[in-house]
Amino acid sequence: MGQSSSAEQVSPEQREAESIAASTGALPNLQKAFSLLSDPQTHSIPTHSLQKYFGFSIEGSTIEDLTVPKEFPVLLSHLSSSIVDLFFLSEKGGITWVEFLKGYIKCSGRTVSSASLNNLLRLFGMISVKADLPEKLQVVSDEEDSKISGFLLPVDLQMLLSMCWIMWWDSKKLRASSCLGGSGLPDVTHLVLSAIDSCVEADKKIDLWENSSILDLDIQLPVSKIIMWALKTVPSLADCYGQFVHARLCYIAAHEEKLDQADVFLHDISAKEMSVGHLLNSGRAWAISLTLRGTLSEEISRACFPSAAEEVDDYLLYRSSCHGKGLNRFWSNVEGYNGPLLILISAHEVNNDARRWIIGILIHQGLENHDTFYGTSGSLYSISPVFHVFTPSGKEKNFVYSHLHATVKYEAHPKPVGLAFGGSSGNERIFVDEDFAKVTVRHHACDKTYHHGPLYPDQGFLPVEASIIDVEVLGLGGKRVRDIQTSYKKREELFTEQRRKVDLKTFGNWEDSPEKMMMDMVSDPNRVRREDR
């Protein structure tokens, strides 16, 4: 597989490629995959063989089932050949061990996000040319790290995002220990609107509330601005094709006996939305996961594919439409959960029920009863109808405020009861009242904790009070944190039950007790009254 028995026979080029691949932890799997795919005679992988294992089998591709253009299945059919042609260079009709390693490194190796996004757009451009679509992207030079110029239309961006979803879902499916079921294509309109809002000039802005025919708009989105939007809003988007290549090669190495099964690489591209809660569907969860990295991204990714009812219960801590509205109901369900939380709020303007929006708050710790702001980190999200993320600015740390009723009976200056995120006391960027009836959203000028930007389209400078439709809270700390919360709640229920019980044995003679005397005084209608004297 390109290795030699003597270290002196290994070329510097091969040694460097193996060193980089080893740093990713994938070298053993790459060695096995190469040995399975390569021709024993030529010691190289036939190009068509590698293309086969990067391919897809498509179902649900009838015109009635699709929410993407009819050209999308054609694009997917050229994905495998484009990956091989663009990244796995071959001049001899086969891919040698060194070329195989270099191709993997280009796709899945560590690199800066801007370079990965540039490669993703180059890949999409090559696929579009093979599918005989109008050429809108141009490579500036023939070098491997060459830049790309041109533009995309909203419909092109939708197909690019849908292609990234399929590659992302494919990598999750191949790595999953249990069956994820069919994926389908989620609605990515909120991401397309986000790109339009960020890339279009101010004098060409569109009405983001009227998005029924948004994909038919003839709006040119410059590639340079798309890259800037992606780096700010969905920085993990370019990881999708790298994860896809990595997962496919590792699967080949680990499941040689399953490679000929027809349903291994089968994908449903009909419109389908899975959801954990009423507000968090797979498209929205995916968008949020693209803003994160590491364990938190994996947890929100799992929320896209709830395969059983108990898995939904592991994530969904509170839903106002099921558990009841109000801070006390909310608190009884989230108390004791010491892990990251995703809070989703759906609301509409008081006098305009048609303008409904969803905002989200991600906090990296559990909630506490405080009359001051606290927290270590977090993010605000505009989720629907347009998606944006507002990360910490680093200027202040007023991440979250969660205050129940005060424990003392009287306070000269009582602190407000409710939930708040960003801003300052009395001037919060987001404030939810204790009845969960109203949410107040203020302009970002009052907030130095999170970056600036509107939480919903056409947000003005003045505070806006909106009517809450629903509130959901999802726990992203994993099963262990959920189990700890369950134990905590059982312990609290036991203590509460014990406090309700009165053990009469602990008292002396009941007839002589002060309690008996007080009860007699209250219950005796003939007791002496002041007016009778």
From TrEMBL:
Transmembrane segments: none
Domain of life: Eukaryota
InterPro entries associated with the record: TLDc_dom
PROSITE patterns xref list: TLDC (PS51886)
Pfam families: TLD
Domain TLDc: 290-477
PANTHER family membership: NUCLEOLAR PROTEIN 7/ESTROGEN RECEPTOR COACTIVATOR-RELATED, TLD-DOMAIN CONTAINING NUCLEOLAR PROTEIN
Protein name, per record: TLDc domain-containing protein
Species, as recorded: Anisodus tanguticus
Lineage: Eukaryota, Viridiplantae, Streptophyta, Embryophyta, Tracheophyta
